[in-house]
Specification:
This protein has 170 residues and is α+β, with helices and mostly antiparallel strands. It has 2 domains: 3-89, no CATH class; 94-164. The chain has helices at residues 3-14, 19-31, 33-40, 46-56, 59-70, 77-91, 107-121, 153-164; strands at residues 94-101, 125-132, 139-144, 147-152. It has a 4-stranded mixed beta sheet with strand order 2-1-3-4. α7 links the parallel β1 and β2 (125-132). α1 (3-14) crosses α6 (77-91), α2 (19-31) crosses α3 and α4 (46-56) packs antiparallel against α5. The mean pLDDT is 94.
């Protein structure tokens, strides 16, 4: 995520722009690629872009779309929407974690990992993105923010190899 997209996302959150209006705006932009191309196009006048925003987008997002176009950042809109969702979750105490596994975890295992992450990060809730990866050979890798907890066989082999052959100590 670029710093610019992050700044816009925080502004949207702090202005309390309804998430439903943002979803509707994003849906409109995805459904009609020519609309996005027109907003990004520097040869289309700002006046025309503002007219389009007034006609098409939800009232709650019109001034935002106009501001983004005025500053030449319409190409960042999808990145801004993603950054908004991530920032909103963070502000609500929701941690996003990626669990990569060989064998799908049970509900009990997910609850245990969730409790571990909530304690470690001081969050109220954890949202998992689950990804299967047979190249791990066994076990799992858990990522949340800059934190990585590698309990895969592949990771264990790598750590053992580093230890035995003079690499970094595990």
């Amino acid at each position: 995520m670029t710093q610019t997209a992050g700044n816009y996302a925080k502004a949207l959150f702090e202005l309390s722009v309804p998430e439903q209006a943002l979803l509707e705006t994003e849906k409109l932009l995805k459904a009609e690629s020519r609309l996005m191309e027109a907003l990004k196009n520097p040869t289309v006048s700002l006046t025309e872009k503002e007219r389009v925003a007034d006609r098409i987008f939800p009232e709650e997002t019109r001034s935002f779309i106009k501001t983004v176009c005025r500053h030449g950042h319409a190409g960042l809109l999808f990145e801004i929407f993603d950054a908004y969702r991530a920032y909103a979750k963070e502000q609500r105490g929701i941690l996003r974690a990626v669990l990569t596994y060989v064998t799908p975890p049970t509900e009990e295992q997910l609850r245990g990992l969730s409790e571990f992450l909530k304690r470690r990060f001081g969050k109220r809730e954890v949202e998992f993105e689950l990804t299967e990866d047979k190249t791990l050979l066994g076990g799992f890798v858990l990522r949340a923010g800059a934190f990585e907890y590698d309990r895969s066989l592949r990771g264990s082999y790598r750590r053992l190899s580093n230890y035995l052959y003079g690499g970094e100590r595990a």
